[in-house]
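Service request form, structural biology core

Requester: graduate student, group of Dr. S.
Request type: structure prediction, single chain
Budget code: on file
Notes: please return the result as structure tokens.

Sequence provided:
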Amino acid sequence: MAAWIWEASTRAGEFRSGTMEADAEATVRDKLIAQGLVVNRVKKKGMELRLPTIGSGVSLKDLVVFTRTFSTMVDAGLPMVQCLDMLSNQADNPRFGEMLGKVKAEVETGKSLSEALGLYPRVFDSLFRNLVAAGEAGGILDLIFRRMATYLEKSAKLRRQVSGALVYPTAIMVVGGLVMVIMMTFVLPSFEDMFKSLGAGSLPAPTRFVLAISHFITGNFVFIVPIMVAAGFGFSAIIRTPSGRYTWDSILLKLPVVGNVVRKGAVARFTRTLGTLLSSGVPILDAMDIVARTSGNAVIEKGILHAREKVSQGMDIATPLLETGIFPPMVVQMIGVGEQTGAMDDMLQKIADFYEEEVDAAVSAMSAMLEPIILVGLGVGVGGMLIAMYLPIFDVAGAIK
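Core staff response, request fulfilled:
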């Protein structure tokens, strides 16, 4: 028998975790379901959880369409099984339609919807499943799905803003890098042959420097490419480790331009997610645990878990959040006011609305700042190489004259 680590939640949305001795993962899941728990994930102790066939090929847009349409159908009084059947047959994504069909089959066997969605944790994350469980417990499933659809739509908008602002600078950098590599490997050697045929003497220092780089690239090209690919895979493997991810996320938060966007985006995501969970009836400690695991940043996750520990000891939520140094004082003060007035979920939604607008402005400022910097850098690089190549031509022309 092997030891298994499991995470689950109750029908009321309360988080549970522990270890269990069993022969197989299916045995652990069956025992947890028999206890009335919604299984979030199960992994063998000391090993990574691997679900290669689950959660791939489903986009955020697919989830938005599903949640919005499902909430409308349930609100209209259609039975849940019929809703799932219609959505599985009408899904634009065949893989997602197949998943919904299997979810429908599980619901028909007597499982709750949150339990059936738990079969696909990479598609329906812990936030989604806990909200559905809270909606089932409170009889407000249509309201929960409407809130979830709004949350997903705003998350998609925030993601589009950040990724859209980085498309143009990234494209410029890629094209500029390719131009410089082509010049180094094909154009500069032609210039060098021309200098030799013209009988140019000692070349200027800038020309010798550029030609030395060209010789290094052309002479070691078969080694440079594998090294760069290996470095990329190595970096990806490092940031997947807890310490590597924490270090990388810390660097992102401290970067001059990008760090501001990352921080404001994290605040918007934290407040939107926590507000959605609290307004849906999820207990504060479980809500903070879910928010920490879905934050997307290890530094922010650690800060939220620190605040959760303090709240479990009887403190208010504002004070430990301020101690982390991650969240702006204005945000913490507004959360404190919401906590004192008993309207923290509404206050969190207002903070999220404000910071989503702030992210939009920060993304625009970042894009406006990065574009000229990249263009100037590429201009200096390409222009410097051209000048270095034309200096000997000027010397030869002067000698001929």
